[in-house]
């Protein structure tokens, strides 16, 4: 086994703590063994240990998600939501939609002031921003594909919460950054607050969260959606004028949907359908860039980037106009990914010249915002594959921690069109298709994806990053299938992003300067950012050799069975 190991020991004054050694592993090569890639090394190790205990990929992903809710509070969660794409070694393909839903008391204009102007502070921060959580229901919906009982899968997370773990430098920095937010939105002091600044190696103990996890362990999903925990959520809503009710929690339902599947070159792409926009965007972008035979150009060359940016521009314009919860709108997926439609969409493309966004959709000014989500990719030794992306939406969600429960609530209501034409926190514009309605699932960009080759899993991929998720997954697939990059390069090479509005192309700071200058000559406005996404990738060749890569942009880590 070839392994590139980056490790560091986080020392703590609490010598009794069990989880003070954090080993970040960025790449593993193996064969006939299970692999887990996630945003945190302790969570990845939990998933790998579960497979050693006899669990399969679905056991591992459940346990990893629970562990992330403890060790990665900025995005890991039990009170958020997400999407799962699975492919079994039997060939069965399935998805689980555990996206949050709008409370029964929600209404279309709930975030508008008396003059009709949007108050995005209410949709992004505090109790009114909270959608009905889907994560715990999603974990239980996954259980029927697993082998071990939930009691075993949740225990590692309980241990991590109860005994504590050393925070990384990155997590310590974030906790310090959001200290005032926790003070503002919580009546009682949370586990994430301390009198001094957090630093690398400090122990984070979450006794209240451990208690909540034990109730789920004892009573199943009802241990979260009913009983003591549900009452704690209701009490929290009353404290902050939130609108989530006990009936909202009790009535939450997971939806199992047919995967969005399409052919690209010699592969089959299996991704998430609506209410995730990711699968549709991925199909559109791959097909449009193939019209220009993007593989004939060098990766991150001016020509390749222009083709891909223009594919992204047109796809995001369609996102704003047509996409939402398929249970509330006319689902036009088949039209949007059809060759005839996309060829017509591509007619306005001209090499060496930027297409004005006004030519593909109505221009509306929008602000720049940031994002966080988390992704897990898993393969087991039997060939079962799973890609799952979950989120609280923004960093630490609504910043509200349920008093007595110890867990963060999401701020997912901001992913609706607060007012049609007004962008959300990630700058994504939405229309009537994504307007707020009770019980409706908000449109998402999460794009958990499994690429098949010769009817077997070939690439398992996903990333956090809000609206940059579909474009990062798109680039990862093109990097491997078209540009023939190594798995490590496919993940860590500089990325770019365009989403129709704003007009600018976002590039990472280490993006090739020659390409930037050429794009600017072609009327592209360039904006720089420190990083785009954190891709978790597994590739399996025809002989069963597997390579797992954790993104170098964060504390992401690989673990092997």
TrEMBL record:
Q: Name one GO biological process term.
A: glutathione catabolic process
Q: Which residues form the signal peptide?
A: 1-17
What EC numbers are recorded for this enzyme? 2.3.2.2, 3.4.19.13
Query: What PROSITE patterns does the database record attribute to this sequence?
Result: G_GLU_TRANSPEPTIDASE
Q: Does the keyword Hydrolase apply?
A: yes
Q: Per the record's keyword annotation, is Glycoprotein included, yes or no?
A: no
Molecular-function GO term, any one: leukotriene C4 gamma-glutamyl transferase activity
| Active-site positions on this chain | 373
Pfam families linked to this entry:
G_glu_transpept
| Reaction catalysis annotation | an S-substituted glutathione + H2O = an S-substituted L-cysteinylglycine + L-glutamate; an N-terminal (5-L-glutamyl)-[peptide] + an alpha-amino acid = 5-L-glutamyl amino acid + an N-terminal L-alpha-aminoacyl-[peptide]; glutathione + H2O = L-cysteinylglycine + L-glutamate
Pathway listed for it is: Sulfur metabolism; glutathione metabolism
Q: Where does L-glutamate bind?
A: 99, 391-393, 415, 444-445, 466
Describe its PTM? Cleaved by autocatalysis into a large and a small subunit.
InterPro entries of this UniProt entry? GGT_bact, GGT_CS, GGT_lsub, GGT_peptidase, GGT_ssub_C, Ntn_hydrolases_N
Keyword annotations for this protein?
A: Acyltransferase, Glutathione biosynthesis, Hydrolase, Signal, Transferase, Zymogen
Please describe the quaternary structure of this protein.
This enzyme consists of two polypeptide chains, which are synthesized in precursor form from a single polypeptide.
The similarity annotation says: Belongs to the gamma-glutamyltransferase family.
Q: What protein name does the entry list? A: Glutathione hydrolase proenzyme
Species annotation: Kaistella antarctica
Origin organism lineage: Bacteria, Pseudomonadati, Bacteroidota, Flavobacteriia, Flavobacteriales
Name of the gene encoding the protein in the UniProt record: ggt
